[in-house]
Amino acid sequence: MMKIFPAFRSLFYRYVAFYISLLVLPLVSMSVLVTGRYFHAYLDETNAQWASRLTQIRSSVETNFSQIANIAFQLSNNEYVQRAQHDINPVVGRKIMSELRKFNATNSFIHEIVVIFPPHHIWYASSTSYTARTFLSHFYQYDPIEFVSWLEGLRVPSILPEQSIQLGSGDSRTILANAFPLPVGGIGEPFGYVVFLIDSADAAELLTTKVGLVTDNLVVVDAAGTPILSFGPRYAAAGGEIRTIRVASDDNGWDYRSYIPSDMIEGRFREIRKTFFFALGAITFFGGALIFVFMRYSWGAINRVSTQIKGFTRASEVPVGNELDVIRESFRSIMEEITFLSERATIDHEVVKDYVVFNLLQGRFSDPTEVNLHAAESALRLDAREYAAVAVQVDKDLGFDTLEQMLRTYEKIDTPEFQLYGRMSVQKSRLVFVTGARTRNHASILRYFQTLSTELSARYSAGITVGIGLFRESLLELPASYIEASSALDYRFVIGGGDVIEFSRIRPSKSVEYRQPFDAVHELTAALSELDRAEFDRTMDAIANDIVARRPPLVQVKMHVAEVFRAVAQELQNGGTVIEPTQELQDVFLIARFESVDTLLSY
Questions:
Q1: Is residue 90 within 8 Å of 78, Cβ to Cβ?
Q2: What sign does the CA torsion over 475, 480, 481, 483 have?
Q3: Residue range 221-245, pLDDT digits in tens
Q4: Looking at the chain, which residues constitute the CATH 3.30.450.20 domain(s)?
Q5: How many CA atoms lie within 13 A of 255 on its CB side?
Q6: Which candidate, 94, 409, 489, 578, has a CA 20 to 30 Å from the CA of 138?
Q7: Is the distance from CB of 552 to CB of 510 less than 8 angstroms?
């Protein structure tokens, strides 16, 4: 290394570090900005989705609790329940259990309904009756003292928050108890109680299977902040960062909270970000390696240039210092001039765009990727499904600057439905555009030109007519679309100007769908590749004679001629021949201006 870079090693590495910084800093800044905005947008959307789910769950839960309150009111007024406060007997008991079974079947949210008459010490459920001791010791093993004290203190409907209860079957279930004093809404000492037992697992299954809602990690708390009902696992207990999304109830003060691990929301984004930064690191590594190799090669050239300068300069005039000092001092004026020119050698994006649009309409591009590569220094990007040419004709001379302003106004679109790129036409007071439709519905393009052309016509006090060619999937068919758009403009002399004219509305009765003269084009290109002038002339004459014989519409002849010239020019370029096709040979704008088949064939 020292042999290659004597005395300048540190300076060399400073240059390497500087150029790597130029590569890395913009990439890092852009990546931080883009990933940050993407993350916030993704997080907002996710939060909105979860909030929407919570709102649906809240509606379903409150609907079921409202139904439970209605059932309690109906039981309170049931004749057998009313009779039981005075006269309890097996017949009345069976009738009460029958009523409970019917109500239990109407609401899947309910696990069991129990009607309690304290003076009789009999508790009726939908399937059987119990004593208080049997019910609390064997079937639903609540703490007897706590449960009975809670019931005896009831004067208004109350909820006993969910807790893990051992059932008579041996299973352990999470049960919420919702109790109402009898009569419901009464004043004074109640004669009984109706208790609705709700299994949170059954409720979650109901919401998931019948309502179609995801209930994992959901906790319902009352106005005091006490959890009364939960669905699914509580991720908050598992540790790690947890996001809480909440929706409040306006009716009962309850709060619906969903606890979501950050990894569940941010996991996908983190994977994308990891891949993105890995790619950024790879770009930095390989870019830095290329910069190092390039600088190493360039530094050798610096040494050689410095030596040559010393050989051409008198000893007394050679600057003192290393090779860079020699070159800097000897070429100061040159470097100043280069710097001056470099600062003004910014690529004109509009020139690049005009060049690409011009060549698109000439049929010189076949692939959007190729177009985007040529247009890398401009804002032009093609990613549509179908493409068409559009020609805009102004009926009076507004001057170059005004026409250019009009072009920029047309190009200022902000829609995902289509793209639009234009340039000034070689014809007076005409603008030409390439539009790309991302869907097969082109109505939005038609409305855009109708609306904006009307506005511009009023602004500049000039009639504006728009011609739109047929949409096609291949870029190679844009010359045909331009010929159709130009023909549509010519139709303004028939129906009047100041409107948007689609070629599909006015095309001749004969088929004018774009078709290559397949065999003839293949024969022409084959003759060119074999340098067979006689065969080339014969094929050209055959094409002209066929056109004369069939007399197709002029617009169809123009499209055929444009395709023949495009194919010939493409073959000349692909073959690497020194014969360069002239612009006139490929110029679809010139072909579109012919007014008869005879003049076109003579051309």
A1: no
A2: positive
A3: 887 778 878 776 655 444 557 777 8
A4: 65-262
A5: 13
A6: 94
A7: yes
CATH architecture for the domain at 348-507: 2-Layer Sandwich (3.30)
Which residues lie below 8 Å from residue 569, measured CB to CB, with a gap of 6+?
A: 364, 581, 585, 586
Secondary structure class of 248 (helix, strand, coil): strand
Report the pLDDT value the prediction gives residue 481, as an integer from 0 to 100.
Answer: 87
The first and second tokens of residue 328, run together, are 């800097």
Q: List, in sequence order, every residue forming a beta bridge with 245; answer none if it has no partner.
A: 258
CATH 3.30.70.270 domain residues, the chain: 348-507
Confidence of residue 25 (pLDDT cuts 50, 70, 90): confident
| Gap between the Cα atoms of 263 and 266, Å rounded | 5
Q: Rounded to whole angstroms, how far apart are CA atoms 438 and 385?
A: 5
Find residue 421's DSSP bridge partners: 434
Render the burial of 338-355: b for 16+ CB within 10 Å, e for the rest.
Answer: eeeeeeeeeeeeeebbbb
Q: Give the pLDDT confidence score for residue 512 in this predicted structure.
A: 45
Q: Which two tokens stand for residue 395?
A: 């009926």
493-498 long-range CB contacts below 8 Å, 24 or more apart?
497/393, 497/395, 497/463, 497/464, 497/465, 498/395, 498/457, 498/463, 498/464, 498/465
Q: How far apart are CA 236 and CA 464, in angstroms?
A: 66
Distance CA 315, CA 317 (A): 5
Q: Exposed, middle or buried by CB within 10 Å (0-12, 13-18, 19+), for 440?
A: exposed
Q: What is the pLDDT of residues 301-314, one digit of tens each?
A: 666 666 666 555 55
Long-range contacts of 304-310 (CB under 8 A, 24+ apart): none
Q: Kindly state the helix (H) or strand (E) to which residue 466 belongs, with its residue range.
A: strand 464-468
Question: Which residue, chain included where needed, has tokens 């689609």?
Answer: 502
User: What strands lie across the sheet with 464-468, from one edge to the other?
Assistant: 418-424, 430-437, 386-394, 464-468, 500-502
The CATH H-level superfamily of 65-262 is PAS domain (3.30.450.20)
Could you count the other beta carbons within 10 Å of the beta carbon of residue 374? 17
Helix residue ranges, H only, 396-553: 400-411, 443-460, 478-490, 492-495, 503-506, 518-529, 533-550
DSSP state of 140: B
d(CA 563, CA 594): 16
Give the contacts of 328 (CB within 8 A, at least 6 positions apart).
319, 335
Q: What is the DSSP track for 519-548?
A: HHHHHHHHHHHTT-HHHHHHHHHHHHHHHH
Measured CA to CA, the distance from residue 92 to residue 99 in angstroms comes to 11
